[in-house]
Structure formats: C-alpha cells, structure tokens
Amino acid sequence: MMKFTAITAQSQSAFTILEPGKHVFFLHNYSGDLTIDIATPDAEIFIYGIYIGRNTDHFTLHTTQHHRTGKNISDLLIKGVFFDDSKFLYEGLIQIDPGAQQSNAYQKNQNLLLSPNAFVDSRPFLEIKANDVRCTHGSTTGRLNQDQLMYLDMRGLSAADAEKVLVEGFVHDVFAKMQEIGCETKSIEEDLFALFLQK
Questions:
Q1: DSSP string covering 5-52
Q2: Residue of 69, 30, 72, 25 lying closest to 46 (CA atoms)
Q3: Is the confidence at residue 187, as pLDDT, over 80?
Q4: Whole-structure pTM over 0.70, yes or no?
Q5: Alpha carbons 192 and 88: distance in angstroms, whole number
Q6: What sign has the CA pseudo-torsion 171, 176, 181, 183?
Q7: CA 88 distance to own-chain centroid
Q8: Alpha-carbon torsion 83, 193, 25, 109, what sign?
Q9: pLDDT, tens only, 117-173
Q10: In the Cβ-directed half-sphere of 146, how many Cα atoms lie within 13 Å?
Q11: Which of 58, 73, 101, 187 has its CA 20 to 30 A from that of 114?
C-alpha cells in the first residue's frame, strides 16, 4: 500500500501513522510545521520537498519525524534553490522514543544559493532515547560548482543554460528517489522545472 499526500497551506500539518506500508509526503514552497508520528511497526515514511525562492520569498519550515514504535523507517530529503533576496529557515527533528527499537531515520537538507543576497539557515536535530536504531542527519548549503560551469561553457552552453542544467540536476535527486519507491513524478517535474525559467 502507498499513500501520497501533498502538503499545502490548506492541509493538516500533523499526521499519525497507524497503518503499515508506504506513506509519502511532498512539499513545495510550504511554510509551517509538519509532524509525522509513527505509531505502528512496518511503516515506511518518505518526506520529500523542493523549494524555489525568488525575489523576497521567505519560507520557514519545521519538521518532526517522531518514532513512537520501532521497526519502521522515516526518510526526509528537502532541496532548495534560492535566487535574489529569498530566505529559507529550516529546523528538522528526528525523535526516537525509548520503545522504538530498530527504527531507521534519515534527514537531509541541501540548498543552492544563486544570489549573494539569498540566505539559508538549516538546523537538523536528533533526540534519540533508544539504543538499537540507525539515524543520520545532515545539511549543506553552497553555490554552483565553478568547475562544472566552466566545463559546460567549454561545451558551448551559455551561462544561463549551464546554470539551468546544474540546477535541474541538483533537484532531480528528489524525483529519482520518489520514482524508486513507485511515485509518478512527471507532472510535478514539469510544473517545477517551468519555474526555473522565470526571471
């Protein structure tokens, strides 16, 4: 069984998972809280997000992956691309209760800054009260690789086209992971990549 939920400003922000199977949550430019309480074994929770900030966009996101029982998985990947004066503030918490042995929880936030004025503050946290678990978290924020830009320039791409190629490659990781677990992503990809063409 797979359940897909798109998180928007109008949707609920707290979910309790009571059924085994795959539960997929997708965020695009969502500001707010997202809390996933995992209260059953054999549940697989996937949280994917893509943020595209332009002009003075300002996004704030708080996520909680709360493992109340064990023998389950949560996996979060959020990627952001920020232009102009946009800002992204992120706090992510993985919380493992004492009885949630054999939980696997992963959290990764990666961001690209495409303007000297763009700003990201990303803070991952772990709160682990069980000893038989596997948890990782990480956050990176940087700029486009100049060697890759130079290589594409030598291949005849304009600076704008080279930037577009690298940004699409950066974001595509999210779609690749979604496809691996059986999600259809074509319409989402088309909508989001169209946003990269905006200036």
A1: EEE-TTS-SEEEE-S-EEEEEEEES--EEEEEEE-STTEEEEEEEEEE
A2: 25
A3: no
A4: yes
A5: 18
A6: positive
A7: 12
A8: negative
A9: 999 999 999 999 999 999 999 999 998 777 777 767 677 777 777 778 888 889 989
A10: 0
A11: 187
| b/e 115-148 (16+ beta carbons within 10 angstroms → b) | eeebbbebebeeebebeebebebebebeebeeee
- List, in sequence order, every residue forming a beta bridge with 136; answer none if it has no partner: 106
Of 52, 110, 32, nearest in space to 76 by CA: 110
Q: Are 33 and 13 in contact (CB under 8 A)?
A: yes
For residue 11 the two structure tokens come to 């949707």
Confidence tier at 196 by pLDDT (50, 70, 90): low
pLDDT at res. 67: 98
Average pLDDT, integer, range 25-43: 96
pLDDT band per the 50, 70, 90 thresholds, residue 106: very high
Q: List CB contacts of 185: < 8 A, sequence separation 6 or more.
A: 175, 178, 179
- The answer to whether 72 and 101 are in contact (CB under 8 A) is no
Nearest-angstrom CA–CA distance, 104 and 176: 20
Domain coordinates in residue numbering, the chain: 2-143
Phi, psi of 71 (to 5 degrees): 55, 50
